[in-house]
Amino acid sequence: MSRSASVRIEGAVKRHGKTTVLHGIDLEVKPGEFFAFLGPSGSGKTTTLRLLAGLETLDGGRVLLDDTDVSHAEPGARDVAMVFQSYALYPHMTVRENIAFPLKMIREPASAIEQAVSDAAARVGIGHLLDRRPGQLSGGQQQRCALARAIVRKPRLFLLDEPLSNLDAKLRLETRAELRRLQRSLGVTAIYVTHDQEEAMTIADRIAIFMDGRLAQVGTPHEIFDQPATAQVAAFIGSPPMNLFPARLEDGRLRLGNDVLDYLFASHANPGQPVLAGIRPGDLEPCTEGGLAAEVEFVEDFGDSAIVNLSIAGQPAKMRTQRRDLPAEGTRLRVSPRLGSVHLFSEHDGGRLAP
Amino acid sequence: MTAANRHKTGAAARRLLMLIAAACLVLIWAFPVVWGLLTSFKTERDVLAWPPVLFFTPTLDNYRAVLEGSRSILPNLWSSLIVTSSATVVTMLFAVPAAYAMARLKMRFKRTTGFYVLATQMLPPVGLIIPYYIVLQKIGGLDSYAGITTIYLTFSLPFAIWLMITYFEDIPFEMEEAALLDRAGRLRTLWYVILPQARGGIAVTTIFVFLNAWNEFLFAVVLGGNTVRPVTVAMYNFISVEQTQWALLSAAAMLAMAPVILIGLAAQRHIVKGLTVGAVKGGGRR
Questions:
Q1: 3-state percent helix, strand, coil for chain B, nearest multiple of 5
Q2: Structure confidence at residue B2 (pLDDT)
Q3: Cβ of residue B264 closer than 8 Å to a chain A Cβ
Q4: Phi, psi at residue B131, to the nearest 5°?
Q5: CA atoms of A329 and A11, how far apart (whole Å)
Q6: Residues B128, B159 contacting (CB under 8 angstroms)
């Protein structure tokens, strides 16, 4: 049963009254992909998901499923299933009736429904709860019930709107892995909305990052981590996210406060142009000479690693280290980025300059 | 006395005060009903006795009189039932879809429509009687069930729509969207998902509409006649220029009240809150 749709969004525009919430989104999702929409709240990721479901109408552009224009198709005609953040279970029906509902609506024979319901329930591990009502389930069980209702009719596209946000931290980690397994075993295309970058990075094949109603970047978790397209993306991805310093290029060398990093940058930036230098906390390491002068403000020790909070050129910065001999608060030391690990962004619009 | 004990005594005193206040309210509310009930079992002589008698030999003569013979109110109860049930059925038939549309669908002039639905409730009914009389007279609707039922709709329909809107608005949007995605379509979504959850609201609204229509007097007395003569109008006949037949009036009133009370009791279990509790977790509002 591997029916999986390809998704194409072309120039999608959405307005709410006078405010434009989506400024022309172009996006392609391949069949069978687990795709995440990631972004801060209000960035347009949920709106885009709802456009795919047909729960919002387009103000411009097109939505194509399997190369067919469904921009104006009713939600029910699109053959997509959605798991809502609130689960949206029908409170007056039992779990069994909830899961059976989509099949009942397309008039499947009762015996087929019975079989499909027990299959779907077993898949998500709620086979023993079929006679309960949603009100009698725990949050995690409700979430599974919503999942079962979505997978029971084998849709070609699976939409998940922050499905884990109402679960506690431990359950969220477990369910995350299970979701991934479920999607793999069904082979269905899935789009997953989240504001949690760690969730997106660990679960998705590819990620689209939404910022202010625009796509800031689309790529695999690695691409986005290693080559963030803008300073905003860089500041959003990674935990802790990338350090960004205002800096200046001088003869291909980077001046950061009073220090000059002794690397040559072959960059598109003009000499003397102000830039933003981005360094991941994991790419900073103590050094004996050169590098940047820093002062230790405080240390967060996690046991196997630690985050050293520094002040570099009057700016807060974080350094991740595995070393056990952690510097004391107030220590002055020098740190330098690993070779080739400095990202340069335009100070003007945050666009990536180098490498 | 410890602080905890003092706290306990304070709470008990508050409870007692609340009970006394509640008892006073119930007494004020119940007195006319109880007095009417007592009066309905008195002879006309006991009714007029001064000082009022509390102990008397009860009689069923009054009930016999208003149920049998020339002064029977049975035809009027029947008349009430016809007007009230047709008004209630027609009202709910239109109010439920109308309220759903007003609560949910995006349409033009929604605000304006909503305002005019409400505006009809702002007019004093007395001011409408003469226009209604003239209209019904012109179309031959005076003293007809169709005519009076239609007039009842003019006040019950807006009332029911406005009451139902709030119930529909309480149902989470996502639930409807989930049903739409499950290929239920608008009508089946309404039938399978929305209406079962609005059951409590529908019951409450039906009861209110029924009560209003059953208790209606003003329109019935002016626009009715020999054919349409609800029990509220018939009871009025026990008050004449020469005398008021209190005992008969009370017996008729008790009979007129009975169905209302029975319906209220029967529907009580429908008026349950919290049907949607547990369906939606967290705040998924955009």
A1: 70, 0, 25
A2: 61
A3: no
A4: -55, -45
A5: 51
A6: no
Spatial separation of the C-alpha atoms in residues A157 and A98, rounded to whole Å: 20
A1 pLDDT more than 70 = no
Ordered DSSP codes for A132-195 = S-GGGS-HHHHHHHHHHHHHTT--SEEEEESTTTTS-HHHHHHHHHHHHHHHHHHT-EEEEEES
Identify the structural domains of chain A with CATH numbers, from first to last.
7-228 (3.40.50.300), 233-346 (2.40.50.140)
Alpha carbon distance, N-terminus to C-terminus of chain A: 44
Residue-wise pLDDT for A101-151, tens only, equals 999 999 999 999 999 999 999 999 999 999 999 999 998 999 999 999 999
Looking only at the bridges linking them, the beta strands covering A7-16 and A60-65 are antiparallel
Task: Give the span between the Cα atoms of A216 and A351, in whole angstroms.
Answer: 10
The total of other beta-carbon atoms located within 10 Å of residue B266's CB is 11
Token pair 């196997």 is at which residue?
A: A304
What is the rounded distance in angstroms from the CA atom of residue A157 to the CA atom of residue A73?
A: 15
C-alpha distance from residue B234 to each of A129, B151, B172, B252, B253 (Å): 58, 19, 47, 9, 10
Which residue of B181, B192, B285 is the best one to mutate when testing the A interface, meaning the one whose CB has the most A CBs within 10 A?
Answer: B181
Closest CA in chain B for residue A161: B284
Chain B touched by A267 (CB under 8 Å): no
CA Rg value for chain B: 25
Q: How far is B179 from chain A (nearest CA, A)?
A: 8
Q: pTM surpassing 0.90?
A: no
**ipTM associated with this complex:** 0.83
* Beta carbons of A52 and A7 less than 8 angstroms apart: yes
